[in-house]
Design a protein that fits this description.
Blueprint: E1 9-14, H1 16-33, E2 39-45, H2 49-58, E3 64-72, E4 83-87, E5 97-105, H3 109-119, E6 125-133, E7 144-150, E8 156-157, E9 173-176
Parallel strand pairs: 2-3, 2-5, 5-6, 6-7
Antiparallel strand pairs: 1-9, 3-4, 8-9
Helix pairs in contact: 1-2
The protein binds inosinic acid and magnesium ion (MG).
C-alpha cells in the first residue's frame, strides 16, 4: 500500500526505488575511495538523516558517524546564508577523513560555512557528499565530491527534505506545487520563479 501524495505535491521526481539504487552506487564509490582510510560521516540534522542511514548501509568499509545541527537565518534578506552551529559534533575530527553529508546543496552557503568550520579542526581530509545538488542556484563554489542527483530549480520535499518541517517522511522526492508554497515571510528562499 502506498502513501497518498499530499495535496501540495506536484509530481514525484525520484521514487524510493530510484533513490536507493543511486545511493547504492554512491556508497560503492565511497567504499572504493576511502578504502584503508579512517572515514567519518558528518551529517547535518535534520534533513540528511534519511540519506545518511541508507548511505551507511551501502558503504562496505568501517565508518563512524556524527551529527551537527545548524540554525539558518538565510530567509532573512539582511543576512543571506548566515548560519550558526546549534548542535556541535560529539567527537573531535582531527586526523580523520571526514565526509560532510548533506541533503541538498543549493546556494552553497551552508556547505561553505560548514567546510570552513570543520577544516579548522584538523581533519586528514574533508569532502562533501550530497543527495541533491541544485547547481543552477549556486552563489559560492562548493567542491561536491559525491552526489546522487542534480535537480532543477524547483522546491522539493521528501526523503528528509521539508517544507516548514513537514513532508520529511515521504518515501520519495517530489516537486511542490508553486501555489502550495507560502509567499509570506518565512517562505523558502528558492520559491519557483513566476515564469514556471
Ligand atoms: P544552501 O545554503 O543554499 O546551499 O541551502 C542548503 C539548505 O537549504 C539545505 O540544507 C536545506 O535545508 C534547504 N533547502 C534548499 N533547497 C531546498 C528544497 O528544495 N527543499 C527543502 N529544503 C531546501
Ligand atoms: Mg540541510
Amino acid at each position: 500500500m502506498s502513501i497518498p501524495e499530499p495535496p501540495g505535491v506536484e509530481r514525484i521526481l525520484f521514487t524510493g526505488e530510484e533513490i536507493r539504487r543511486r545511493i547504492a552506487e554512491v556508497g560503492a564509490e565511497i567504499s572504493r575511495h576511502y578504502r584503508d582510510k579512517d572515514l567519518k560521516l558528518v551529517a547535518v540534522l535534520k534533513g540528511s538523516v534519511y540519506f545518511l542511514t541508507e548511505l551507511t548501509r551501502a558503504i562496505e568499509i568501517p565508518v563512524k558517524i556524527d551529527f551537527l545541527a545548524i540554525s539558518s537565518f538565510a530567509s532573512q534578506r539582511s543576512s543571506p546564508g548566515v548560519v550558526r552551529i546549534a548542535k556541535d559534533l560529539d567527537e573531535p575530527i582531527e586526523g580523520e577523513d571526514v565526509l560532510l553529508v548533506e541533503d541538498i546543496v543549493d546556494t552553497g552557503l551552508t556547505a561553505t560555512y560548514l567546510l570552513r568550520t570543520l577544516a579548522g579542526r584538523g581533519p586528514n581530509s574533508l569532502a562533501v557528499c550530497t543527495l541533491l545538488d541544485r547547481t543552477s542556484r549556486r552563489l559560492v563554489d562548493v567542491p561536491v565530491r559525491f552526489r546522487c542527483f542534480e535537480i532543477p530549480d524547483r522546491f522539493v520535499v521528501g526523503y528528509g527534505l521539508d517544507y516548514r518541517q513537514l513532508y520529511r517522511n515521504l518515501p520519495y522526492i517530489a516537486v511542490m506545487k508553486p501555489g502550495a508554497l507560502s509567499t509570506q515571510s518565512g517562505a523558502p528562499r528558492n520559491l519557483p520563479r513566476s515564469s514556471e
